[in-house]
Design goal:
The chain is mainly β. It has a single domain, classed as RNA polymerase II/Efflux pump adaptor protein, barrel-sandwich hybrid domain (OB fold (Dihydrolipoamide Acetyltransferase, E2P)), CATH 2.40.50.100. It has one helix and four strands; from the N terminus they run βββαβ. Strands 3-2-1-4 form a four-stranded antiparallel β-sheet. Strand 2 and strand 3 form a beta hairpin. The longest helix has 6 residues. It is globular and about 35 Å long.
Length: 67
């Protein structure tokens, strides 16, 4: 699969919290915590589990820099 997104981060799932429609997926990326909100259907379709190695794809229309 090819994708235009360039902000691809290899991460490990630390925690999944399912709600009725949405799920919070907490990932570890080199010691930094990433959090994604995705549908429960997506969690189930991808068969996501704690400990899975995944790629977090970040797509944003805006980027900020802090120094």
């Amino acid at each position: 699969m090819k994708i235009s997104g360039r902000n691809k981060l290899e991460a490990t799932i630390k925690e999944i919290t399912k709600g009725s429609v949405m799920a919070k997926v907490v990932m570890d990326y080199n010691g930094t915590e990433l959090v994604a909100a995705i549908t429960v259907d997506s969690v189930d379709d991808l068969n996501l589990k704690t400990g899975d190695k995944v790629t977090a794809l970040v797509k944003a229309t805006e980027m900020m820099i802090i120094k």
